[in-house]
Queue: 4 jobs
Job 1
Amino acid sequence: MWNQLQTAAYEGMLAEIITLKGHNGDAIHAYFARPLGSGPYPGVVLIPHMPGWDEFYREMARRFTQHGYAAICPDLNCRIGHGTPEDMAAMARGQGGVPDDQVVGDCEAAMRYLKALPFSNGKVGIIGTCSGGRQTYLVACRTQGFDAAVDCWGGRVVMAQQELTANQPVAPIDYTKDLSCPLLGLFGEDDQNPPPAQVQQHEEELKKHGKSYEFHMYPGAGHGFFYYDRPAYRQQQAMDGWQKVFTFFGRHLQS
Amino acid sequence: MCTGIVETAELSGSGKGAQGWFPVTQANVGFDHPSHVALDYAVLIDFVNPAQGPGARVAVELTAESARGLARAILTALEAGEAQNVLAPSSR
């Protein structure tokens, strides 16, 4: 995967902010990156992590595009206002986070946007990290139309009754019977959220409902081991994780 | 938000942010991933004025231990104010 490009091959991309009709038809911004060419290309919806609609996620979108995917990352905090990613994430946090229903609606809209593109191959995956991992699972359970989902260390898939709020009223694990596509999960053994015991509980629920999934638990890694801008970054685990993401999406989205 | 932990307090006072002083009306206290301090989780305190937009914010990210120390220091300072009779009874 890494550095397997051909030096003689043409490569180009377009990356820009677009306006998307999200949940309830609300206009929201999205970062959209696509290869320059006629395709057909598979698509990927990216759900940002707790630090918000930030530079890391824009780079991540361009990384998918470099590998032949149309990638879209909706600004889930768009309705709250605009500022730096940090300020917007703080504002969303102060409001108890964005409502789950709204996230599901925004991501479903992003999936439909990708599928309607003239250069789409008709397949779309979804990926998210941290809170975006939890939301990825939620979206994959509550919508139809995604062809593969990747949950990277999503905490609070398992939620105690006292953790439920008006914005997050149902624990995602309770939707497991409705999971609509194959699932890849990447986790760190030293993570506190989700701890390995919760990952195991999630896995048992997937088995119980006969779902297609593969989980990988990395020793020597905690939460957020892809984040090269944070001390949590783990080079070996991150590179292996990216390999697994591209292999998984390649299997389910490129055929 | 990853942990979902956030407590909100109504405030009355001022804070100095990137654009200077502004009226602070609320504090959001979370325990979640920080943006700057080199920790997986930290106590995140945002002194904000939502009516003035997302930029009206004074942010701190603290270790759990130092956040407890801060909470104690605030209470200790208030007690000292009471002892010196500079804290009006109505403020107690």
Note: Chain A has a mean pLDDT of 96.
Job 2
Amino acid sequence: MTINNKLWMGLGVGAVASVAIAFGPTSASGSGADSGVHEPGVYTVEDGKVDELTFRGYEAYARSCAACHGPDGVGSSFAPSLVRAAERRGYDEFSRTVAEGMEVQPGQVMPSFADDPYVMEHLGHIYSYLKARADGEVGRGRPQVIEEE
Amino acid sequence: MIRIRHCLAAAAIAAMATTGVQANQSVLDMQDDPELWPTQLGNYAGNRYSRLDQINRDNVQDLVPTWQFSTGVLRGHEGGPLYVGDGRLYIHTPFPNRIYALDLEEDGRVLWMYEPDQDSRVIPVMCCDTVNRGLAYADGRLYLNQADNTVIALNAEDGELLWSADNGDHTEGETMTMSPLVVNDKVIVGNSGGEFGVRGHITAYNAETGEMEWRGYSQGPDSDVLLDPETTLMMGEPVGEADLGVTTWPDDEWERGGGAPWGWVTYDPELNLIYYGTGNPGTWNPAQRAIDGEPADNKWAITVFARDADTGEAKWVYQKVPFDEWDYDGVNENQLIDVEWNGEDRKGLAIIDRTGFGFLLDRETGELLVAEKFAPETNWATHYDMETGRPQVDPEYSTFEQGVDVNTTGICPTAMGAKNMQPSSYSPETGLIYAGINRICMDYEPHETEYVSGQPYVGATLNMMPSPEEAGGHGGLGSFMAWDPVAGEVVWEIDERFAVWSGALTTAGNVAFYGTLEGYIKAVDLETGDHLWQFKTPSGIIGNINTFQHEGKQYVAVLSGVGGWAGIGLAAGLTDPEEGLGAVGVFAALDDYTKLGGVLTVFSLPDR
């Protein structure tokens, strides 16, 4: 980043020293193994950094969702904010919409991702990322990953 | 009077038919008539300049909306209305690609509407909204490229479908958004889909029958590219080596090599050459396009092509960005301008490019004459080597050198480009080019991606931010500028809150017009840039401002309707990605200023 901090209108950059567990019976370990099981909607944030699987959710969002729903889940001129959707919709409804798609009105179509193995594989991670965004625990942009002990 | 003009045009065409048609006579006749706006860019040269001066520097502040028309379609409205002298405006919409003929005598009464039947599954494979850049007209026919790759010809009189041609397959990620151009007896069209690993091509269809006449690909063997290494020129010399469209790619990566020519096409009737640029080379992850770990040129992506309009053969090529590492999609319009260069007259070709550089080339030979930064923050390359025509890339901002899964920060301009598709204007009186530009930078992280037919093939994530003040930014996201294409200098510049994503217009009335993403149409003094007039249309403007004269009265018309990539990237505003939590709303959010909705607004001076 070469941008002068003065540009940011004096907003503090203070590190966020909180850990948040959104919902679900278990908390994520954040150990970031490839095979890690991640309850959809669960995430770990430490010092503003996220666990590996939530980061995967960010990446999958950026690759497959952002083209319509805008950067960081914030929505675009025509597609709704998924940060807000994650506040209001449970994982069942979220995953059903992604898999089945939705015709909001003629010309405004959410496609079905049922045939996209990459998206379907990361659905829970995407939801965790959006939950973390919705809970105000993760800000805009590419999050940092919690380093392993 | 209108009918007479048409009869004359018809007679002229009949005469030409017996002698062999050179250029499209009806388009040539129309572009010579200052009252008309017959092509999306106003003329074949792409100048977007009008000789009308009823509306001028001294009275433009009196301009008022005469009537408005809702298109009934919500998403981003690019392109603009055509006026061919028959008392109507012809407009189009984004998907579902409606076409309207509106009666100027009755404040835009709908004379006919055509709405094609399209598979809605095309919508999600359009990368950046469902935009369409508009109609073409020639010899009583209207031409449009539908989102689903169908090229159609309609009878302008009644909207009857005359023919349709299948130009591609949306289930493989191919779409169409660009405006066709009618040249000679052919309709020239290009495909979209650079984010889906398509193979870009430009195609000529017979204007009367819809039969394919030729197709030139953006990569692959020379026989597909329609390039002869012994005669096609590059930097004034024959290309030399055969099949660079294959050998400058690893393995068979050229088969999904992008290079979609989704921008504007311009044409020089004397040279009988069409000009257009090709898009980004497939995946945004440069490592997947390298050969043995070394950068490879990925020809002919991000390349200006000059092709013979009748055969499609490439006369010359100029690759603006070999081995793209930033998505600097090279489709921006090629303005054909005649200039004085080092004391001699040259047939010039000027580009306000995605890369942040303003280029001037010789349009007969493709020789590079000028390459200078118009956006001061531009940092991915320090300069262009004028001998080789290649950019000197700064390794700090090389996403390839920084590596896969590394976030390269502070690159200017952003992937949106320092200028995107919004077409510029050239005034032959001032010799300057007027353009809306973007002042946005980015962080860019390439990652490995796998090609799956019909799925996004991007391979990079990016964050955008305003151009930093210490690099020349002004805190906002866009500017409107006057550029001297020969000196390679900005003459004046107006700072705007958002990227200026509308097509510019200049007129003999010494006025430049442009639209803003908030929805303002603005008029400024051509010479000084001083603000003269503005009006807030119902939605953000990503369309082009056109002008025409009907029954003695000059009109200015524009489609508003926010959307496009600007509507996706800027809706919620930009933030400092390092800010993390709480960074929402640091920069203006477009969503706070405007909402969806396609509306045509027609302006004129009040009757005295």
Note: Strands of chain A lie at 45-46, 49-50, 102-105, 108-110.
Job 3
Amino acid sequence: MELIVNGNRVEVEPQHGEMLAHLLRERLGLTGTKIGCEEAECGACTVLIDGVPVLSCTYPAARAAGKSVLTIEGLAFSRPSDGEYPHPLPFSQKERGEYPHPLPLSQRERGEKASFSTPLPQNKEYEREFSLHPLQEEFIRHGAVQCGFCIPGQIMTAYALLQNNPNPSEAEIRQALKDTLCRCAGYPSIVRAVQSAARRLRGEEPLPPLVAPVVSEQGKPQPSLQVIGTLQPRPDAVEKVSGTAKFTDDLKFPGMLHARVKRAMVPHAILKRLDVEKARALPGVAAVLTAADIPGEKNHGLVIFDWPIMVGIGERVRYVGDAVAIVAAETRQIATQALDLIEAEYEPLEVVADPVRARQPDAPQLHPNGNLLKHIKVRKGDMEQGFAEAEVILEHTFHTAITDHAFMEPECSIARPTEDGRMEIYVGSQIPYADRNQVARALGWPDERVHIVGQLMGGGFGGKEDIAGQIHAALLAHATGRPVKLLFDRHESLLVHPKRHATQIRVKMGAKRNGRLTAVETELYGDTGAYASLGEKVLTRATTHSSGPYEVPHARADCYAMYTNNPPAGAFRGFGVTQSAFAIESMMDMLAHTLRIDPIELRRINALRVGSVTNTGQVLRESVGLLDCIDIVAQELKQRAGDHPFTPRVVEGQPHLRRAWGFAVAYKNTGLGGGAPDKASAEVELFENGLLEVRTSSAELGQGLVTVLQMIVAEEFALQPEGVRVLVMDTDLTPDGGPTTASRQTFMTGNAARYAAQSLRQALAASLAEKFDVAPERIRFVEGLAQVNGHSLPLGEVAKIIRQEGRLPKASYEYWAPKTQPLGTGGDMHFAFSFAAQAAEVEVNILTGEVSVLEVISAIDVGKAINPLGLQGQFEGGIMMGIGNAITEHFIVENGIVFTDRLARYRMPSIMLTPKITAYAVEHPVEAGPYGAKGVGEIVSIPTTPAITNAIYNAVGVRIDRLPVDQEVIVREIAHA
Amino acid sequence: MSTWTSYYLPQTLAEALAILQTDPHSKVIAGGTDLLLELQQGRHAPVRTLVDLSAIAELQKLEQRKEALWIGAAVPLNRVVAWQPTRQFATALFEAASLIGGPQVRNVATLGGNVAHALPAADGAIALLALDAQVILATPEGQRVQPLLACYAGPGKTALQRTEIIVAFLVPLSQSGEASAFRRVMRPQGVAIAIQNLGVWLRREDDCIGDIRIAIGPAGPVPFRAHQTEEALRGKPLTEETLDEAEKALLAEARFRTSPHRATAEYRVHLAGILLRQTLQTAWQRTQMDLEKEAVSLSVKG
């Protein structure tokens, strides 16, 4: 057949069963079109056919015969040759691979600093190659690009809209993008980017990016900073908007095999028999491996090595996703056929379906040490006294559901044996060094023989900390001597990777009539599923945060982290605190209601502040911005709803619709804490072309670490961020930044980069001082120059000088976080906490029980807003994930069997659910943080769910104590009331 | 995954019918938004040959005729929605079709597929049923016209032969004094299919309901036409009393079931009454309005 692809005539014969997305990606090399689900659910694969946006993952390639297809790769080139778009923004473009910055932002500086713009290159070819469409430019400029995996779909869908409707309303933009999902969920930025692009295409001025205003702590001196605090676009944004960004599945190697995994699909059983001979005999199959073929350690894990790489004969299957055999074949199709030829027999065992059952003495024991992973205890004061002093005591039990990260990019690993006998693993992983260690142990090798080559990651949110396919791919590559790609489809991704812990949380709370808390007792059951993953750590965080960001004189918490036959649970943005915040913040509203105290006032009375002692016995000495967050949100609320935001209102003309606001606060630790050694390394090197490079293994999953690191190094050298490139996630080339988890990267890796940059600066100054015979203090670095004695040396020259002296213009720094104490020993359990207050307005339909979130106000104490543009993405995305957690997301497992095994059954919020969002960045700096910064990634999402459920109570009097919100329950409860 | 080995894009109905007759393992595909997923996920028996109907001009026609709209079975839903006569003369269908799937899906999904997939709560089918649409079929024996419900054999089971092709739907024009409406209730978790949906067409005669048709899903194995409820309303003024009677009749004749993770029967019973009242009232109000004007202001929800 013949078709036109991006203006080029293509002749190609469709293959059996082939979809257009595969034709484009696999045979035409147009990997800008992404596959997120293969279920026509996510929109990542959107392309235009004869100008109409369709989902190429479910569009038969054969149907495209004679049609014209436009993909993201074609968009950048579709700029009219004669022409300039109206209001073109100047942009500079360095060589590829150098993290180019396309656009000097008009808002780059908050003050009146000089623009960093570089003139457009004169070379015509060059210019044409990088002509971005205004949509692509505006997505970058508005910070709408985060992990980038959904972006080709977003831009193509938006492009189709603008072709037909040059001036779309916000409602029309939402309609058009309704089914083009973004899990980073910067939906408001996406809308604004589309509006701004539409304006430019109409010949009007673009819109400025919208970012949260910054409110600083009163009385703190503001350091003078040049780069930190300015709006910076991502260094990888041009690739991400143009479709040239390579994610792991976009890579191909000569001779590469395709792997698939035979999953047990039974939740609890003994593997009795396994026959892989028929699969081995299938033509095109290169290897079939079982547990017996693992050369090294049989288990993997992050803290506890309890997760079998494959379950062997006679061994226990503990969840449906357990692997029993792995296959590598010439094509994915053959590998899939081979899976069907593998025969496995199981002796089924009683399924342990929930953590409460798991703790009963007669429950089947899943691990050698039983079902209890850990009993976690928090003890403060004297509970008897606390409750005796109380004038009111409330008690209630809450349940939270399992949820899935649903990152847009399903897991993919490629293992490649190298000629020198090593193994390269191409993977987007949150902990490259842990991957290296686990792969090496499975192979029985020293760590150094494995090389993790980090790839762009299409979202992680905690879900890419554990091993997915890395070890299986490595085993198959080792066995066959060929590169092996192991790609999960969405179905496998949903079945296999660790989830958010389901919990049962009982809270007993005592207070004085004046609202002062006297005692909080919590009992948590956490479902950590089949394997430990980070379950102990997650549930420790759930437990220590379970009495909320309040000063409670008497506190006690007991958490039972239990193994079950459900999919494992591990890290997920919020890390346990999402669950316990829902319980405690619901209780606080119940207490406010009982005591007839304003819910905001009740929180003010009890809020942690400087000098408070937490429930783990930590004295907070600085950086407690909770009261400021509360006040800011309260003020915004007052503007909107006067003095009674929590009173229900009937929507005019719609007597069945009730509206009300709800309020919640939260806190979340930054860093590992609890006495764990917490360190991050980074190195900074100066090259002879004048560029600086910062290197660390910490992971970029879309959250914006690379921008933060670039800005920090630029700040230290007083130059523009374009002068700094960033390399991350490579175990050969970058030092260990530690796990990308616990909202720790800005603080930990940021500090490492900052101190490495300072060391390098000092080393350079020392060398120049010697050479030019001046005092080192008299040497300054400004705008890419070293100023020595009134002379200016370009940094490239400095690099040459240092090298001529036989030294390397490079400095490393291993940053150790301030020491923390283990739980139960008192003292500083964490070195920093972030704080948040949020209010949500909901509308409840009392006839159907349907709930919608209309508006969210958010104030987050982040210590220091390093990059407000990236921060905005976190603010927006965090709220959207909180809405999902409250309203849409429910990973359903029934007796160990996963019901939500397709994206069609697991809904994450679409752009249609986006409320109006008003966000503030509050800056109560941490002394030890980089420029005062602390963690951001998790706190932004934590209070959203209870703010929503409290609003539902305020609107219709129904207390939601089980997540997600069930509209049927609301109707039933209203009827009972 | 190889789910088919031959894919045909016939240009004419005759060509398509010929392939279906000669290849016993062939099956028609329109937009394929349901069928392809079922094939990919192993929920449909493997198919060797797919006969794609999207290139057949006759199935792509939208025509306003004297008494009815001719809506080609393979016209993508977004075109059905964007076509002014749909809004004006078949408002329930406009509302239903704009709610099916997402925008990209609607650019390929078709009404023919919505009916052939035979789900009892398919939004398009419920609207077509309320509008009393007739189905034009092409068969090896020639064309045939039949009522919509004759296409159904059971949940997910069509009564159509493998060699039969839905060519078009004939949707009677709502005349002056007549109007239709469609509503549904979803839940935000899980599969995006309506918990309950309902379509109404009615003719107003002074202050009474002259004639009425009500379709509801899921309320049985196939899209359900609520004849007894219609009877309870026909000739009556639209009063609270009439509505109460109608609701009683609906609950008596329709069968509501619990579907796990979606809705209990009790909730569906509750919703059926609400949907009946709301949709009825919307359609009633529309009979008094300048339809064209109102259609423009109808916002697409979903």
Note: Residues 675 and 820 of chain A are 5 Å apart (CA to CA).
Job 4
Amino acid sequence: MKTGILRFPGSCDEVDAQLAAGLVGEAVLLWHGDRDLQDVDAVIVPGGFSYGDYLRAGAIARFSPVMESVVEFAGDGGIVLGICNGFQVLCEAGLLPGALLPNANRRFTFRQVELEVVEPDTAFTSACPAGEMLSIPAKHGSGRYYADEPTLDRLEADGQVVLRYRPEQNFNGSLREIAGVRNAAGNVFGLMPHPEHAVDALTGSTDGLRIFESMHEAVEGARV
Amino acid sequence: MRARVLVRPKRGILDPQGVAVERALPALGFKGVSDVRVGRLVELEIEDPSQLEAISSALLANPLIEDFEIELLDDAPAA
């Protein structure tokens, strides 16, 4: 499996994402100005502050040349993971429903959060142990998931809400405690917390690795 | 043509910036201020103002969470 991790001016978590994806296969960085995705099997849109987050988080990154290729890749069923700023970019690009608003607590917040795996049978969560919470760090200023009520109802009914915060840990004020959503086809997924920062026991939790292992299963399984 | 696009958070969506401003005012002695909403003002020069609607909904605002208002100004240079 070969994973491509986008690098925008202002990205800051692309190297951790590359190291994490490197634990389950090959991982290369893809520059925002290039359209060539280098025949990768999966794409990660990483965390950071792409283009300075001017205007709105993710608003400008969405128009970068590499994103044109990612939109096409996703349309063909390619596996795409957006983490934090990457989640914001995927929402702005219309690849995922909803939007991420400034945190309700009005602060940039960094803390370990526990996530409920609402949908354990997806291309991004299949390797998560049944019934167990994922302990993963979150760090962001604009992570309040928002979509209008009919959209939220539809997302829940269609199994597109993949991860939820424990209610008491929902510091950003996300509607219905939503921490991660996937698209209707199931091949695009975004979340605010950072699984790539939780892949080594040295940093306290390896739960994030489950996300990368799941993507590996999805890609390799599709080959069989 | 000079134009302004006013972008504001949609009604009903919590605006933490507005809340912060509102809560700061009593400390400065200003009373009776409520429902503060903080938006964005984009000023620009544009040759074809008919593009403004598309520009605003594609980039300047996210119509899912923000409303925008277009204001056309005189050709006089901004002070």
Note: The interface with chain B takes residues 55-56, 59-60, 63, 92, 98-99, 101-106, 144, 146-148, 173 of chain A (CB under 8 Å).
